[in-house]
């Protein structure tokens, strides 16, 4: 059997400590600003969609288009980064973010059916921006020593903590600045935040792709067959899909069981904090215990969150479900992202990373479609029970990874 690729065989250029720190800080701040941009989309999407849609059944279509934009634009974003460099992809994404805000402004001024479809276009631009932002975590690992890659990736994701604070406040501060049309000032601010992100990203210094890197590397079809990649993509996809699946349904489920909007908003706030706050130390855990173990802990926490939800329908059950779900997502998704870094060479990185994100967010889009329908038809308990089969599949994938890689590692140690 052909041995699996090991990144240890290839040494990438390492930037100075000052450049590494600058890159991580800039990417983390840009992550926070872009996260706030996404919060605007989620906070306003259904409300504006309901006001403009020609039919009530289309009210949530703008949010669906946002998720589709994320899934469909991951591969093009990777192609731009592979040909022109990551900064070109970053600036293209920020440009899409500016278009998202400005197109939304036009949509609410135009109104009616035309305004609705313009608003759907704006959320697609927002999804394209979010797709590019996904690569920030991988970009942080560029030009960093191998032993610090997981920590760099994790620290950039920690920018999401600020997004959880800045995003809602951005909506609160601007929603009433212009009384008519609705959220016009918010969408102007959305465009301005994306433009500010572009300015910050101009200072990111990452190596540009060489001609050899653009043409080199193994075929993608061979790379994605690696047990390590299969486990990483499966865990990343399931962690993100279940997080979105349960998080989307939880506020409506709380409303259905008589709980206040304030209670659901507080639960979501702590959920977002739980998603990103552990990022300050998740990278260190990955470096010490390995990506596979951290991923397994994440899956266990997601399973525990569903089990807590099945324990009752009181506010405290929903809150702990959301908090444990956020923690599980952090360990599962960041562990999977770190494992992806072990699946490719420098020449292959943008293709492999964008393929991974395409799988993750393509599956998340399907989960987003299913969540509301299952909740409406079968109830919150069924939504929670539906989480367990995907978790079991992912645990099996991790077990296969360990069984395939341990003999290879033992053989390497014996040879040494």
TrEMBL record:
Domain Major facilitator superfamily (MFS) profile residues, every copy: 220-416
UniProt xrefs under Pfam families: MFS_1
Species this protein is from: Microbulbifer salipaludis
Name the record gives this protein: MFS transporter
Domain of life of the organism encoding this protein: Bacteria
Transmembrane spans: 27-53, 59-81, 88-110, 116-140, 152-171, 183-206, 227-247, 267-287, 294-312, 318-343, 355-377, 383-401
Keyword field: Membrane, Transmembrane, Transmembrane helix
């Amino acid at each position: 059997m052909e041995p699996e690729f090991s990144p240890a065989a290839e040494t990438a250029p390492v930037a100075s400590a000052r450049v590494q720190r600058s890159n991580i800080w800039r990417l983390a701040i840009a992550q926070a600003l872009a996260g706030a941009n996404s919060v605007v989309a989620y906070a306003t999407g259904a409300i504006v969609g309901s006001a403009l849609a020609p039919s009530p059944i289309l009210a949530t279509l703008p949010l669906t288009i946002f998720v589709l934009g994320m899934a469909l634009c991951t591969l093009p974003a990777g192609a731009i980064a592979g040909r022109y460099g990551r900064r070109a992809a970053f600036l293209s994404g920020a440009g899409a973010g500016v278009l998202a805000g400005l197109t939304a402004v036009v949509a609410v001024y135009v109104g009616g059916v035309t305004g609705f479809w313009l608003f759907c276009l704006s959320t697609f631009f927002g999804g394209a921006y979010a797709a590019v932002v996904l690569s920030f975590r991988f970009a942080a690992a560029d030009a960093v020593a191998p032993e610090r890659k997981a920590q760099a990736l994790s620290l950039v994701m920690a920018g999401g903590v600020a997004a959880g604070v800045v995003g809602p406040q951005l909506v609160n501060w601007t929603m009433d600045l212009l009384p008519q049309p609705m959220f016009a000032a918010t969408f102007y601010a959305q465009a301005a935040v994306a433009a500010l992100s572009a300015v910050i990203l101009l200072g990111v210094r990452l190596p540009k792709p060489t001609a050899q890197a653009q043409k080199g590397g193994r075929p993608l079809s061979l790379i994605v067959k690696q047990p390590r990649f299969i486990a990483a993509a499966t865990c990343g996809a399931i962690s993100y899909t279940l997080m979105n699946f349960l998080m989307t349904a939880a506020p409506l489920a709380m409303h259905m069981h008589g709980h206040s909007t304030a209670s659901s908003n507080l639960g979501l706030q702590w959920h977002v904090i739980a998603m990103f706050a552990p990022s300050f130390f998740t990278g260190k855990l990955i470096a010490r215990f390995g990506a596979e173990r951290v991923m397994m802990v994440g899956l266990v926490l997601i399973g525990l969150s569903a089990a807590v939800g099945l324990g009752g329908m009181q506010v405290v059950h929903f809150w702990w479900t959301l908090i444990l779900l956020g923690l599980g997502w952090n360990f599962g998704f960041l562990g999977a992202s770190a494992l992806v870094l072990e699946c490719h060479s420098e020449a292959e990185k943008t293709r492999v990373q964008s393929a991974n994100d395409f799988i993750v967010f393509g599956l998340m889009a399907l989960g987003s479609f299913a969540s509301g329908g299952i909740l409406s038809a079968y109830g919150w308990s069924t939504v929670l029970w539906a989480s367990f089969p995907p978790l079991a599949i992912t645990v099996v994938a991790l077990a296969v990874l360990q069984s395939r890689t341990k003999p290879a590692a033992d053989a390497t140690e014996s040879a040494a």
